[in-house]
Design goal:
2 helices; mainly alpha
Length: about 130
């Protein structure tokens, strides 16, 4: 009987140890779940903030695009239109003079001076020492 009593005491101690380990594990699980919920909440908040930030950026980009498109559709200043017209009229007037030259069939047109090409075009101020 004494052996049964000793065995019963040993089993009771082991049972208490197992219960205390179970309690520790349950507390660790609860802490882990709480940490996971907190992490998920912060991730959700960060995702929401990123979504709002991206939406604001998209709205800004769309507004800028609309402003640029409005500028494109505006008529250019009359002076610019006049300059463009004069430029293209001058080009069209010069085409017959340059056509044969551009096709490689003739030399440069009359009135066109060919500049000498120099490797360096450095002017020295008067009185400066020359090297």
């Amino acid at each position: 009987m004494a052996s049964h009593l000793a065995q019963e005491v040993q089993l009771a101690r082991r049972h208490d140890k197992i219960l205390s380990q179970r309690l520790v594990l349950l507390q660790q699980m609860e802490n882990h779940l709480r940490d996971k919920k907190t992490e998920k909440t912060s991730q959700t908040q960060a995702a929401d903030a990123a979504y709002k930030r991206n939406a604001a950026l998209l709205n800004d980009i769309e507004a800028a695009e609309k402003r640029l498109q409005a500028r494109v559709h505006l008529q250019p200043h009359p002076d610019i239109v006049k300059l463009e017209t004069l430029y293209w009229a001058s080009v069209e007037e010069s085409i017959p003079k340059w056509e044969q030259f551009l096709l490689g069939r003739a030399q440069t047109p009359v009135g066109f001076k060919k500049k000498k090409s120099t490797k360096y075009n450095i002017s020295h101020p008067e009185g400066a020492a020359q090297r």
